[in-house]
Amino acid sequence: MKIRMKDIAKMANVSEAAVSLVLNDKPSRISEKKKQEIKAIAKELNYVPNIAAQSLAKNASQTIGIVIPDIENPFFSKLCKQLEEQFRALGYLTIIVNSNDDFTVEKNLIQMLLNRGVDGLVIALSNESFSSKEEQEHFLREIDAPFVLVDRHVSFSDINQVYFDSQAGGRLSTEYLLENGHRNIAFMTGDFKVPSTLDRIKGYQQALQKYDIEYREEYIIETGYRFQYGMEKAKELFSLNGVTAVLTSNDMVAFGVLKQAAISGKSIPKELSIIGYDHLEIADILEVSLATVEQDSSSLTDQAVALLKSMLTMKKKKTETIVLKPILIEGESVKKLK
Q1: Average pLDDT over residues 166-186
Q2: Residue 260 gets which letter from DSSP?
Q3: pLDDT of residue 278
Q4: Per-residue pLDDT tens for 29-48?
Q5: Is residue 240 scored above 60 in pLDDT?
Q6: Quick check: is 252 in a domain?
Q7: What is the secondary structure of 157-177 as a DSSP string?
């Protein structure tokens, strides 16, 4: 049987209004002894507040929508887990939806969340949305709830966003290979239309320029971010003459290259050195530990939650862009050349 506020009021011999004041910790003239009695009765009966009624009273649903592009990607799965935990600690329920990197699906999901009255949103944009930048900007500016973009950023202003410095990440990983004697370095990139991909390519170019190494277009292979894409494009990589090392768009693509290397009988890192991106936990259990660039999802979560919280509680109007620094993680997948 569902326990209602009036049941507690009857047992405590007080009004429903008094029970409401006590359970919501509102100021009142009720004695401390009676407050403790009311709370003890509620606890004994396992009373659960009517969230719908509270939402109507407060004009807030205590719900946050989280929109991600690929729930199968461990980076986004971990990010969702961390976001859910932090929002739950703040008293929010989270609704997690997956766009599958489809802009139309993404727009529909966001509208559905808004229709359900979410108080705010955390959005990791789909790759496809960057193919229609004008539509992307128009859609984002029409969202009538506080939101924060995470991981994949936009170039236009007045949008709250938290992301990692991809240019620094591209530069770090390339310099690591150059320091280990590699000169013919391929790059299996993400989608060219995504700003973070272009930023990483800039970092790659900066590192090559620093070492007076020529930038070669044929060494750039647009790949994407999934395991199967890594396997498929690895065949193109292996056909390049003289390449001794490769950067990948993320660890999942690196795993795909490693799988294809095993199938093709190519030794890693003896014949080819490889660097991933994201520092997924499973990268550490490989027979050859994967060199990678870490994007600390805990920092991303902390900053995104703090930013959205300030928008919700303080009605913050000024937008903010927070750029986090990636970290190079060395690994056995990179061979030092003489």
Answers
A1: 97
A2: H
A3: 93
A4: 888 888 899 888 888 888 77
A5: yes
A6: yes
A7: SS--EEEE-HHHHHHHHHHHH
Tens of pLDDT along 64-107?
999 999 999 999 999 999 999 999 999 999 999 999 999 999 99
Alpha carbon 138 to its chain centroid, in Å, reads 22
Rounded average pLDDT over 255-284: 93
Element housing 68 (H / E):
strand 63-68
276 with 304, same domain: the answer is no
Closest CA relative to residue 261, chosen from 229, 238, 289: 238
Residue among 180, 185, 200, 216 at smallest CA distance from 293: 200
Range of the domain at 18: 5-49
Q: Give me the CATH number covering residue 155.
A: 3.40.50.2300
pLDDT per residue over 178-196, tens digit each?
Answer: 999 999 999 999 999 999 9
Cα–Cα distance, 128 to 137 (Å, whole number): 13
Q: Is residue 152 located within the same domain as residue 258?
A: no
pLDDT band at 58 (very low <50, low <70, confident <90, very high): low
- Quick one: 113 and 258 in the same domain? no
* pLDDT of 315 over the 50 cut: yes
Q: Are strands 147-150 and 120-123 parallel, antiparallel or unpaired?
A: parallel
Place of tokens 């703040």: 90
Residues 219 and 282 in one domain: yes
Q: How far apart are CA 68 and CA 76, in angstroms?
A: 7
Q: How many folded domains does the chain comprise?
A: 3
What is the phi/psi pair of residue 194, to 5°? -90, 125
Cβ contacts of 22 within 8 Å, gap of 6 or more: 28, 30, 34, 35, 38, 39
pTM, 2 dp: 0.80
288/310 same-domain check: no
| Measured CA distances, 257 to 79, 225, 337 (Å) | 24, 12, 21
* Residue 235: partners with Cβ closer than 8 Å, 6 or more residues away: 260
Q: Which two tokens stand for residue 152?
A: 């994949």
